[in-house]
Design goal:
alpha/beta; 2 domains
């Protein structure tokens, strides 16, 4: 049976960030990825935004890791020459009810250590003439970046530190024995690897994978729901120079506008609950996109929009917003087995701080 020190299952941005952090500790890191390339799931199907830490409840993991992660990720961009733009973000209110919601958002952001500036309608027009709103909040810390180059840089650090990433390698389950954690590979040989430490970062498949490990505390594994987010491309030069966000909903930040690094952009995501992983965008959703966008951009025309791409966010419930879930051996019931669930937005921004957290927990175990 093959042996490994530290195995990370899933080469999305979370798995890569954790693998990198542990490789700098001198751990022999092996990252196993079922797809042909790194970051082919949720990590590459999102808005590619650096979030400031505005929305998340005070003292939540999302608030903590987003604020810390934002600082870490901008430093990373500078050090590794990753293409990014700190554009800033405008969160808009279009009526009295939404202006009250902005006040609550500003208060929450302040509690998280994030400073926002209130802009009235005239102030907004000076910055973004195309926006129609009654008032807004301006975040100067928000930005966009090249997530693909970022993930490749994480991968390079792992490999530079003598770690390895094996692609097209699906882990189907495993078990705990007296010598460590045995993982089972889904291949013709039914290969097995005995590991000292295992970290489940398999995203949309995290719950299924944990359930397939004998010896894991199944009662602690949360439910999973798939929240599909569709995007529509803007078929013209971007009308806004900043990120433009509506008031957030319970499970989504709303159909917002994200400029891309080429000067164009896209709108989305919406939210569509689904039981299957399907990344096709239904063109019939154009009508609802157009209606929502027109509330803050009156000059939009439906022919300016075309179906773009979709991503699927993992949620642990449908009834309320949820926090990140990071299970250590205390929760998994298995020595040296760690598992992450519900890492949706702001997971991309938070990945380096999540990695630092796991590094400290694992190194002190």
């Amino acid at each position: 049976m093959n042996k490994a020190d530290c195995v990370i299952i899933g080469a999305g941005v979370i798995g890569l960030a954790i693998g990198r952090a542990l490789s700098f500790l001198g751990r022999d890191v092996l990252v196993l990825e079922e797809n042909e390339h790194v970051g082919m799931g949720t990590s590459s199907r999102n808005s590619e935004v650096v979030h400031a830490g505005i929305y998340y409840p005070e003292n939540s993991l999302k608030a903590k890791f987003c604020v810390q992660g934002r600082k870490l990720i901008y430093d990373f961009f500078h050090k590794y020459n990753i293409n990014y733009k700190k554009l800033g973000k405008i969160i808009i209110g279009t009526n009295e009810e939404e202006l009250k919601a902005l006040e609550l958002l500003e208060h929450n952001a302040r509690n998280n250590g994030v400073e926002l500036t209130y802009l009235n309608r005239i102030d907004v027009k000076k910055l973004e003439p195309e926006i129609n709103c009654s008032g807004s909040l301006l975040s100067n810390e928000s930005g966009i970046f090249d997530s693909h180059s970022f993930m490749l840089a994480l991968q390079s650090d792992i490999e530079r530190n003598n770690g390895a990433i094996v692609k097209k390698c699906r882990v189907k389950g495993g078990e705990l024995n007296k010598n460590g954690i045995v993982i089972k590979i889904d291949d013709k040989e039914e290969s097995k690897v005995i590991c000292k430490t295992v970290i489940n970062c398999s995203g949309l498949g995290a719950q299924e994978l944990s359930n397939n490990f004998i010896g894991i505390n199944k009662n602690k594994i949360p439910n999973i729901f798939y929240a599909k987010g569709n995007y529509f491309y803007l078929n013209k030069k971007a009308p806004f120079s900043r990120l433009v966000y509506p008031i957030p909903g319970k499970h989504s930040l709303g159909i917002h506008f994200t400029p891309d690094l080429s000067g164009r952009g896209r709108f989305g995501p919406d939210i569509e609950w689904t039981d299957i992983i399907n990344y096709e965008v239904d063109s019939k959703r154009l009508a609802s996109f157009y209606s929502d966008i027109k509330k803050y951009w009156p000059n939009v025309k439906s022919e300016m929009l075309s179906p773009g791409y979709a991503g699927i966010r993992t949620k642990v419930n449908k009834t309320k917003a949820s926090d990140f879930i990071i299970h250590t051996p205390k929760e998994t019931g298995c020595e040296n087995f760690y598992s992450l669930y519900g890492i949706d937005s702001p997971g991309l921004t938070s990945c380096l701080s999540i990695a630092e957290h796991l590094k400290k927990v694992i190194s002190s175990a």
